[in-house]
């Protein structure tokens, strides 16, 4: 089974085609008792790049199976809740995401791209790590010197970019073309697997262009407001920003 930019194993990934999809029809391709359920079509984001996996349900024959996570292998395995029945292979199902969780993760992920774009543009700093949950996150930067007003300047600039209502677009490019774009990788270490031939590009028009595999809102105005809750020094010039969105 070939894997393209919108496929993983047997699963056609609707989440990469249209991040607004919240429910869809699918067929169970396989069930692994240890790993989970494989669908022919799925909008569940499986996690990666700091963005946690989606949660939701599969509806079939009057039954509801809660999906609590995803396991990656040769296929994408949707992990059912341990107390719920599992639809057998060949079953037609209706998949549905937890809309609030997915939407808030999209807002958060896009907000972090605005944050990294601003810090790179204004201070030349790359990302060294990060983590997100719905509407809250941390982001680490390689930043040896921090001006006294750094925190306020970053927060003000990020929220200004959000108010600009910049379009956020997603495209794919052959690896060679993608790496010809200056600063396409914003992490201090290139985490893109060497066997990836087609690179997914997320562009906040006029601010930031990055290689990224996650889900995003359509414009910065949909992010909301960002607050820097705390700034920490992690030693050797590394700075951690803890942020939340509202």
Describe the structure.
20% of the residues lie in helices and 39% in strands. It has four helices and 16 strands. The strands form four sheets. Strands 4-3-9-6-7-8 form a six-stranded antiparallel β-sheet. The protein has a four-stranded antiparallel β-sheet with strand order 10-11-16-15, with helices on one face. Strands 1-2-5 form a three-stranded mixed β-sheet. Helix 2 (99-123) packs across helix 3 (150-163). The longest helix is centred in the middle third of the chain and has 25 residues, at 99-123. It is elongated, with a radius of gyration of 19 Å. The model has no long low-confidence stretch (mean pLDDT 92).
How is the topology of this model organized?
Blueprint: E1 7-8, E2 11-13, H1 14-17, E3 23-32, E4 36-39, E5 41-42, E6 56-60, E7 63-72, E8 76-80, E9 92-97, H2 99-123, E10 127-133, E11 136-142, H3 150-163, E12 168-174, H4 175-179, E13 198-204, E14 208-211, E15 226-233, E16 238-245
Parallel strand pairs: 2-5
Antiparallel strand pairs: 1-2, 3-4, 3-9, 6-7, 6-9, 7-8, 10-11, 11-16, 12-13, 13-14, 15-16
Helix pairs in contact: 2-3
Structural class: alpha+beta
Secondary-structure element order, N to C: EEHEEEEEEEHEEHEHEEEE
Oligomer state of the chains in this structure:
single chain
Low-confidence stretches: none
Mean pLDDT: 92
What best-fitting shape do the alpha-carbon axes yield? elongated
Report the count of strand segments.
16
Helicity level, as a percent range? 10-25%
Beta-strand percent range: 35-45%
How would a textbook summarize the main sheet? 6 strands, antiparallel
Span between N and C termini?
Answer: 42 Å
How many H/I helices? 4
Give the spatial strand order of the biggest sheet.
4-3-9-6-7-8
* CA-based gyration radius: 19 Å
């Amino acid at each position: 089974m070939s894997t393209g930019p919108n496929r993983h194993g047997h699963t056609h990934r609707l989440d990469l085609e249209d991040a607004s999809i919240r429910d869809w029809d699918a067929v169970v391709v396989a069930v692994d008792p240890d790993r989970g359920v494989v669908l022919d079509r799925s909008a569940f984001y499986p996690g990666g790049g700091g963005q946690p996996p989606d949660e939701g349900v599969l509806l079939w024959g009057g039954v509801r199976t809660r999906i609590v996570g995803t396991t990656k292998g040769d296929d994408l395995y949707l992990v059912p809740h341990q107390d719920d029945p599992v639809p057998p292979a060949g079953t037609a199902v209706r998949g549905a995401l937890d809309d609030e969780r997915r939407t808030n993760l999209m807002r958060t992920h896009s907000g972090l791209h605005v944050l990294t774009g601003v810090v790179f543009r204004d201070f030349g700093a790359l990302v060294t790590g990060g983590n997100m949950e719905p509407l809250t996150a941390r982001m680490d930067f390689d930043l040896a010197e921090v001006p006294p007003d750094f925190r306020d300047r970053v927060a003000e600039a990020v929220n200004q970019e959000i108010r600009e209502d910049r379009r956020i677009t997603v495209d794919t490019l052959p690896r060679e073309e993608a790496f010809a774009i200056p600063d396409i990788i914003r992490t201090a270490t290139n985490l893109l697997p060497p066997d990836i031939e087609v690179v997914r590009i997320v562009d906040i028009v006029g601010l930031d262009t990055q290689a990224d595999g996650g889900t995003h809102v359509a414009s910065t105005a949909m992010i909301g407001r960002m607050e820097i809750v705390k700034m920490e020094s992690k030693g050797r010039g590394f700075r951690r920003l803890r942020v939340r969105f509202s």
